[in-house]
Structures are given as C-alpha cells and as structure tokens.
C-alpha cells in the first residue's frame, strides 16, 4: 500500500510548480521541455507564472511543467487541442507538420546575430507568420527567443570535413536533416530529453544546440568540445489553442496576453545574456570551446548553402528576402 501511495504521489506531484491553483480559478498549464533555471524559455515560463499568479490571483493561475515532465514537443501539440495543457512553446523547427513556412527560421546562417532576429520578428512579415497554423486550430501568441546554435561532437570539429561520417542528433526537422546531410554526416531525429543519454552512450556522436541547452543539459560533459558556429537559430513559438483563447472571458484574455507580451519581451531581451552566461559556465566547468577563423566560417557557410535552394520555394523568396534584409 505504501509503495502504491508513494508511486501515486510521485505521479501526481512531479514538480514544485503545481498546487497553486484555487478552486474556481482558470488553470493555465504551460508544458515545456527545458530546464527551469539558467535557460531563456525555462526562466520566462517561471516569470510568466509568477506574474499571472500574483496579478490574476482569484481569476486565473498558471502551473509550469518543465523538462518534458508532461509532454515532449510532438505530444504537446495534441495536448493543447485536447485541453490537457493551455500553452506550449516548442521550437519552431518542430512545427513542420503544420506549415512549411517556418522552415525559414531553420535556414543555416540566415541571421547574422540575434539583433537581426529581433528586427525580423518585429517586422510585418515576422508578425504575420505567427498565424501560420490557424487551419489546425492553433494561435501563435508570440515568439520566444533562445539563440544561435553551436556544433559539438566526440572528436575535434573545426571544418565541415571533420563532421563527415558522424551521427548528429537533430530536432524533428527536415531542414536540420538536410543540413547534416550536406556535411556527409548522418542526422538522427531524437526528442530533446534523450539527447544527453544518446551522446553519453554513443548512439550519436554529436549534436547542435544553443549555449543554454548545451549547458543546462550538460551536453558538453560528454563531448570533446563545442565549435562556435552560430549556424542556425533556435526560436520558439508560444502557442495556444484557438478554441481555448476565444473561449476566455475577454478581460481575462486581455490581461493574460498583456502579461505574456511584457514577460516574453523582457526575456527575449535577456536571451543573449543567458546564452553568454552559459558559454562562460561551460568553459568554467572544463568544457572546450573552439572559435572559427573567417576562412573556416566561410567553409561552413558554403557547405550548408545547398539547404537554401532545397527549401526556398516552400518558404517563399519574399519571406527569405525580408529575413536577409534584417541583417544590419
Ligand atoms: C531541442 O529539441 O533541441 C530544442 O528544441 C529544445 C528546446 O526547447 O530548446
């Protein structure tokens, strides 16, 4: 009996984020896959919950479920439609079942820095892309930034040739698959929660992710080193179900959206800093970080250039041009 109760408690109380909602309050569950602390998305979700739980106390409350505790990024989309959770923020790269337009954000070396990303998401085209999934009953309520990605492997990486023959974990994104294939390497789509284990056991040799993901998942501890390529963006779409959003009391909806906008704006502005801190911590904890010379960088850019040609028709040249023009 005791074992049974203990098991039940463990299942019902997976984290400290629960049990804040009072009877009668609208419960808003936010499910995500990353660490709660030291991560742009994890910290943004926690800050959002803190504000909602203070400012909307009595009418609404938010529970955050981090670290794939409830759902991975594929399952969470269905959970939104079923009303099991109310908000999710998957990497845009993983939304290709719903629209091919978001492949834009995966084009390698599209944005030269996060400043350019900010310019683009604030633009008219950037803003209109939020609504690409309405046919499926989803509303994008805003973008949440992480940062640019870096490569790591269990051997020294400096030039594209070094990646040949290696297996790299990628997100569930065909653009990422193509990108790894241009390196004559082998892409393996895996959920985020399996990355550390897959690197540790040698199921894959390498991976690509932002500093904050590489640090908070301790990926650098099972890799030879990290190569600072900044080759691709990791950006999230904060997504809710249209039915849920439209069904809200108008005053509650307006307050929720206002708080969301303020908190995501503040954390988008902090995302670069959080990633820079993660980079420093990786070095402090003994991780190896290698930079690229301008010549090496050119080699990576040209190795991955064929990916653009493959996807440009699906994305639309006008959209690509707008994104390119966001670079200073
Ligand atoms: C990944 O799967 O690598 C990322 O999308 C995880 C995340 O949410 O940052």
TrEMBL record:
<dbReference type="InterPro" id="IPR038404">
    <property type="entry name" value="TRAP_DctP_sf"/>
</dbReference>
<dbReference type="Pfam" id="PF03480">
    <property type="entry name" value="DctP"/>
</dbReference>
<comment type="similarity">
    <text>Belongs to the bacterial solute-binding protein 7 family.</text>
</comment>
<dbReference type="InterPro" id="IPR004682">
    <property type="entry name" value="TRAP_DctP"/>
</dbReference>
<feature type="signal peptide">
    <location>
        <begin position="1"/>
        <end position="19"/>
    </location>
</feature>
<protein>
    <submittedName>
        <fullName>C4-dicarboxylate-binding protein DctP</fullName>
    </submittedName>
</protein>
<keyword id="KW-0732">Signal</keyword>
<keyword id="KW-0813">Transport</keyword>
<dbReference type="InterPro" id="IPR018389">
    <property type="entry name" value="DctP_fam"/>
</dbReference>
């Amino acid at each position: 009996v005791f074992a049974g109760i203990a098991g039940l408690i463990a299942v019902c109380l997976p984290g400290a984020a629960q049990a804040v909602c009072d009877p009668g309050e609208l419960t808003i569950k936010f499910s995500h896959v990353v660490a709660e602390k030291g991560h742009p998305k994890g910290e943004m979700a926690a800050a959002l919950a803190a504000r909602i739980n203070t400012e909307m106390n009595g009418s609404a409350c938010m529970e955050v479920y981090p670290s794939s505790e409830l759902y991975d990024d594929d399952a969470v989309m269905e959970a939104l439609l079923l009303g099991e959770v109310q908000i999710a923020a998957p990497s845009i790269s993983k939304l290709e079942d719903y629209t091919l337009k978001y492949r834009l954000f995966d084009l390698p070396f599209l944005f030269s820095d996060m400043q350019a990303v900010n310019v683009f998401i604030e633009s008219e085209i950037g803003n209109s892309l939020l609504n690409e999934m309405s046919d499926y009953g989803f509303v994008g309520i805003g973008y949440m930034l992480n940062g640019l990605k870096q490569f790591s492997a269990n051997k020294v990486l400096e030039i594209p040739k070094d990646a040949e023959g290696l297996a790299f974990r990628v997100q569930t994104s065909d653009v990422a698959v193509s990108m790894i294939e241009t390196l004559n390497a082998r892409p393996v789509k895996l959920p985020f929660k399996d990355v550390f284990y897959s690197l540790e056991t040698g199921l894959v040799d390498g991976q690509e992710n932002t500093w904050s993901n590489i640090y908070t998942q301790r990926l650098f501890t099972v890799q030879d080193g990290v190569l600072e390529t900044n080759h691709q963006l990791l950006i999230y779409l904060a997504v809710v179900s249209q039915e849920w959003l439209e069904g809200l009391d108008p005053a509650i909806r307006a307050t929720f959206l206002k708080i969301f906008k303020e908190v995501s704006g503040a954390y988008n502005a902090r995302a670069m800093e959080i990633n820079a801190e993660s980079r420093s911590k990786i070095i402090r904890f003994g991780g190896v970080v290698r930079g690229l010379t301008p010549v090496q960088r050119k080699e990576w850019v040209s190795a991955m250039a064929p990916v653009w040609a493959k996807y440009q028709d699906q994305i639309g040249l006008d959209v690509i041009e707008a994104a390119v023009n966001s670079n200073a």
